[in-house]
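2024-03-11 09:14:02 DEBUG pipeline.ingest accepted 1 chain
2024-03-11 09:14:02 DEBUG pipeline.ingest length=454
2024-03-11 09:14:03 DEBUG pipeline.predict start
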Amino acid sequence: MMEIALKIKKRINRAHQALEQLQLERGDTFTLTKVEGALSVKSFKGRLTAVFRKQVKRKRIYKSLGVLNYNYSIEHALCDCLEYEKSLKEHGFIDTPFLELQQRVNSIETLDDLACEFFLHHDEIDFPTGAAPLKSLPELQQKYSAYAQKIIGDVYIKVFDKKHIVRVINHIYAQSPKANCKHCSFHGECDQCRDLNDHAALANHLRYILNRIMDLGVQYKLIRTNPIANIKACDIGYKPKRNRRALVMQELKTLICRLEAAMETEPANVCTIYLILLLGVRKEELVTAKFSDFMIDLIPVEDGKGLVEDLQWKLKTTKTGTNRAMFITPLATEFLNKLAAFSNGSDYLLPARKFNSHSPHIHPTTVNKFIDRIAGDLKFVVHELRHTTRTLLSALKIKNEVAESYITHSSWLYMHDPLHLYDERKEAASAISNLITTLREKVKEEALKNEDTI
């Protein structure tokens, strides 16, 4: 490493000497002239312009680097030339976007620099799996500017640690009504302030934003680890409100009406929502499912005296690792067959739809965006379809034990028992399938009546 640094220093010295000699001999105006390696310089009335020029396989590569001045020195120009030469050697061409990214990364020193990269170039960042791009970026950027930038924006990321996020959190809580309430104490809150959760939620948003920004620092190898990765919402006093709900029957009917209307234009998304409703699974489990996970298996009946063939999904849940053999009804099979027709031979039920995707399947947020498009006015999240399935099972008089096993909420004792209450769950699957079929038919009948009226 020391030898490389010495070589670069020698090249910079040679470049300085060559440029000084050039200016002495030719004055303040001269044509493009080689200075050092692939670095050439031209001048017009004292305005020096650095140019990368190199011949590769009888082809001359020519790229203007910029005007040499206080902000862009000959050292910068020579380093850029070295990067271009490296890119030509590795790729056979100058990878300009990569080099621009590298230049930006090299200029990052403070939290503000890293935050600027995160917010301004958010769409260009290649996020790792599980770290989806932010939907409410402008709102989060405003919160960072208002509550974090003035307090810790100038902190060097190399020394950033938990005490800096504590400073931000304390600043937010200092503005809370609770901080100035005579009736609140360290040990408790008064009745009036108990429901004021806005500042705690704001503090949690800042924790989330700073965490994502520091994750980018790790991704860019500016820091080894994220110093605030282990700080959770509960550590800063935020208690999330449990407001999950299930769709009521009229809302479910409205959703099915929207799904049927979108079947022609977005069939894969429609089938996905129907399968989540029918099976009561988490969206991530369906998104990552492969066709090979679905198979026909033999099930013993009549006290072992007979066997029947059932189409099953050999599911292993993403959250708890529970194994379940999910019975696939004819209606669910219909939707699976449609997904197979649109899969283009992929192993996955829901293959990636972008040619440059880093994942073999769609991102779970694709399902969220679809729901926002067709049923945003119903104001529910995709996970609440799972709650809806559980509620429908209760409406169909399915026993609680069976319903919990159906949505893989059963006791840990049965985590590795794929056939736990299988016969009962099979009947429940048929019942919920019949209910969805009835609702679909009712929606179609009403649509025909409306057409006749018109």
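2024-03-11 09:14:41 DEBUG pipeline.report The CA atoms of residues 208 and 233 lie 9 Å apart.
2024-03-11 09:14:41 DEBUG pipeline.predict end
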